[in-house]
Design brief:
- With about 270 residues, this protein is an all-alpha fold.
- The chain has one domain: Ferritin (Up-down Bundle), CATH 1.20.1260.
- The protein contains ten helices and no strands.
- Helix 1 runs antiparallel to helix 2, helix 2 runs antiparallel to helix 4 and helix 5 packs antiparallel against helix 6.
- The termini are far apart.
Length: about 270
Amino acid sequence: MHPRLRALAALCLTDPALKVAATHEAAAAALETQSFGGPVRTHGDDGRVPGRPDKPERVAATEVGKRSPFTTEGRAALIHSICHIEFNAINLALDAAWRFDGMPDAYYRDWLKVADEEARHFTLLARHLHTMGHAYGDFTGHDGLWAMCEKTSGDVVARMALVPRTLEARGLDATPLIQAKLRRVNTPDAIEACAILDIILRDEIGHVAIGNRWYRWLCERQGLDPVAHYRILYRRHEAPRLRAPFNLEARTLAGFTGDELEQLSRP
């Protein structure tokens, strides 16, 4: 099967363990593929996208329960929320690899590699959650990440601008703050969670960098100014407001320019 169709098949799966396994297989197949060839999209092939389990119950972001790291239950809820983000991130990367025809081979390899790493992150967090007496699906979750995926389904430029380099870049800012709170707790489960978050932060810098690289490539191909066009897309698709504090070191490593970092300080 074509690796992009493998990505679609994985995207449609509802069982998390099966989705993880299929994602790893799609990523491995991509490494052995010399050319990703022409279009693979067909009419109506996104009818089962994305595949998601019945649990967690999906609620509005404002209705997600409290996740204080200073109680055992609160830490489990916090780990669950990050696990849910990583599950969605698997779907986001698979969708980026499958949905958009006409991109260079390197683009598809990049996003299948991202999907592979997101699946590994999900597995690490789900196993850690199990050691805390819980499983993925025990707490509520929201659909903020996938909602932006749907908004940008018809525009690969908008997808690169607003998913990896906006929503996922917010994770670069949030992760050190979460780790700081967990270190204050200093229980064995909190310390283990910090170690997992170290892995995730390292990999996510690379994922955001991939988004930056392809966003700029697309802007150059279409004769667009990356900074000016980003502001247009940000408003058009009603992206969430970017809030300080920003992890400027991680954002720099992920390829944001000095001009882009300076823009963060403006309204």
